[in-house]
Amino acid sequence: MVPWSDIETVVLWTQHVGFATIPYVGLQRRRGLPPLPGSARSRGLRLLNQAAVPHVPRAVLADSRPANSWRLHRPSIEAAVRHFGPTVEFVDMS
To answer: Could you tell me the residue ranges of all domains in the chain?
Structure first.
């Protein structure tokens, strides 16, 4: 759970792994906030992630979650962002 007031941007992006495509939802949070539980904040993980998907900002990579066992429905996510976080930017990089 992340308060809407902590979020600047919700970012949809995709990682290509072999023949698979994995959609992600990422967050660009305000600067200075403590890491989220499960965030990829270690130096090694950051470098690995940045090499794999260089087009996605590092902060967004750290706070991204894959849509593994659920279907990412862009219109529903965009509508939720507009409704619950009207000042939050929505970016689709996928």
So the answer is: 4-92
